[in-house]
Every structure is written in structure tokens, then in C-alpha cells.
Design goal:
By secondary structure, this protein is an alpha+beta fold. About 50% of the residues lie in helices and about 20% in strands. The protein is built from twelve helices and eleven strands. Helix 7 (about 215-225) packs across helix 8. The chain is globular. The N and C termini lie far apart (about 50 Å).
Length: about 300
């Protein structure tokens, strides 16, 4: 695997330089590691690639869409897609490119554990199969990222390639868990689908982070920049659960984590918005097969 490091406060790449590099010099997996504060890459094509920002932020323009990538977020870019990027302040970022012949193998490896479930979700030969939206790294992705950064520090190219492939696999699974690829098929244009998914994910992350005891559908819809009823329909169709039910599920998971950490079940129930402890217990049993009473006694 080729590893290219760029440490410079500023650099503006010329279009012919970029075209020449991406057309001729990416026959093998390539990892770019940038540490810069003012860099512009003009529009260029590439293979299947994974972008991540370790610190700072980086702006990507994919077609007519502008995507801002912040720490803790990943972005997958499809093979054959043209895009440009810009950095305006001190930023450390990583880009990993995989040549075309590795695309199908990596996607298949990522989705294989549930092949029957994923059949409709991705065409391994399609250049538009993956939503091109920023998404929050989950635990699996963060573990794989940590291993990759350790391999980079050790400067072992073989280990770096394996770690990069594993990170790509975890990132695809991560994205699919947040945004099933086959959803929003009514949005025939890829750009429209990706923009709608980006808005839904932004609202979903707001629900994940919410701690209040009331469901504010208007607030979530405003975050997604959609009307309340359109947001409710899209969210439910895409994720298979209504925003209100999803919020209750998130709070239950948080409460169960607190109980396992030693919190009193009754207090955890109140924090999750349940005034009736029996209703809280029934919900835990129904959704997670978890009995707060038994856990507290043990």
C-alpha cells in the first residue's frame, strides 16, 4: 500500500497536476495523510474512497452538493465520482483510495454477514450504490481507525493495507446501520436521495443526543429542513420506526446502560421519561429482553 504524507501550512494544487496524478498513479491502494491549514484540491475523479477528519474540518463538493466533514465523521465517495475539497484552517485528515478491482470484494466482505438482508441494498458493480453523506463513526469504526493509526505510526505497509481494508469494511457496515442503502428509492436522482438521507441522519443524531423528556417532532423536522409530516413519513419509511418510537428506544438503551452501571432502576426509568416503573419494565422486556428488577437484585 502506498502511503503519502503531506505536511504543509498551505498548498493549492493545479488542475493538470491533480488530473495527471489521479489518472495515472492510483493502481494500488493509496493512503493520503494531510496536516495542513490551507489547501485546495480541484475537481478530480477517483476510485472507491474513504474520507475522515481527525481534527479541524474539510469541505467536499460532490457535484452540486457541498459537504462539511468534521472530527468523528466519515464520508464514503463512490468510484467514478468527481469531487473537489478545501481546507481553511488547521486540519489533520486521512483519505484512503481503493482501485476498481477491490471495490466489489470490499463491499461484499462488508455486507456478507447478512447477505440475504443486504441483497437489495447494494449493487457491487454500481458506481452509485453508497450514499455520499457524512456519518458518525460507531464503536466498530473507531476501533478499526485506532488500529490503522497505530499501523501508520509503525510504518508497516502490509499491516497498514490490512488495517485500511478493515476500516473500509467497518465504515460501510457503519453507514448501512445508519442509512440503509435501498431506502428513498422514490428519490430517483442520486443527489436528491443523498441530500434527503443527510437531513434524516442529522435529525436522527439529534434524537440520539437528546435528553429531554418530551418528543418534539417539530424540532426534529426543522433540523432536517423538512415539513413535519414529510419528515415523519420519510423517517418512518427509511428507518422502519417513527421518530417518537426511536427516541423512546434510545432513552431505554441509555437507561439500561445506567442500570448496568449501578443506577437505581426507578431513577433510570424517570430519566427515560417513564413515570410508571411498571411500564418502563415492560418496555425493557419487550424491546431488549432486559429485566431491570432482576438486574438490580443481582
Amino acid at each position: 500500500m502506498r502511503i503519502i504524507s503531506w505536511n504543509s501550512p498551505t498548498r493549492k494544487f493545479a488542475q493538470p497536476e491533480v488530473d495527471d496524478f489521479y489518472e495515472k498513479h492510483l493502481p494500488a491502494p493509496t493512503l493520503f495523510r494531510f496536516k495542513t491549514s490551507n489547501t485546495e484540491l480541484p475537481e478530480h475523479g477517483g476510485s472507491l474512497s474513504l474520507k475522515l477528519v481527525l481534527s479541524g474540518e474539510e469541505e467536499y463538493r460532490i457535484g452540486r452538493r457541498c459537504v462539511l466533514l468534521r472530527p468523528g465523521q466519515f464520508l464514503l465517495v463512490n468510484a467514478g465520482q468527481h469531487y473537489s475539497s478545501r481546507i481553511f484552517r488547521e486540519t489533520e485528515s486521512v483519505s484512503i483510495f481503493f482501485p476498481g478491482h477491490e471495490r466489489s470484494r470490499l463491499l461484499e466482505a462488508a455486507l456478507q454477514p447478512g447477505a440475504e438482508h443486504y441483497q437489495e441494498d447494494v449493487d457491487y458493480n454500481s458506481v452509485t450504490g453508497l450514499p455520499q453523506i457524512p456519518f458518525r463513526a460507531n464503536r466498530g469504526s473507531l476501533v478499526a481507525l485506532s488500529k490503522l493509526m497505530n499501523r501508520l505510526d509503525d510504518e508497516c505497509q502490509t499491516d497498514t493495507r490490512e488495517a485500511s481494508q478493515q476500516l473500509m469494511i467497518e465504515a460501510v457496515r457503519n453507514l448501512h446501520s445508519y442509512a440503509p442503502f435501498s431506502k428513498l428509492r422514490s428519490a430517483t436522482k442520486t443527489t436528491t436521495r443523498d441530500e434527503l438521507m443527510r437531513r434524516l441522519l442529522k435529525a436522527k443524531e439529534q434524537i440520539d443526543d437528546s435528553t429531554g423528556d418530551t418528543t418534539d417532532l417539530d424540532d426534529f423536522a426543522n433540523t432536517a429542513c423538512l415539513s413535519k409530516y414529510y419528515f415523519l413519513r420519510l423517517f418512518t419509511e427509511t428507518f422502519g420506526i417513527s421518530p417518537g418510537a426511536y427516541q423512546r428506544k434510545v432513552r431505554l438503551k441509555r437507561a439500561i446502560g445506567d442500570i448496568r452501571g449501578g443506577a437505581l432502576p426507578q431513577r433510570a426509568a424517570r430519566a427515560a421519561g417513564y413515570r410508571d416503573y411498571r411500564a418502563f419494565r415492560r418496555a425493557c422486556l419487550r424491546l431488549f429482553k432486559f429485566d431491570p428488577a432482576q438486574n438490580s437484585q443481582s
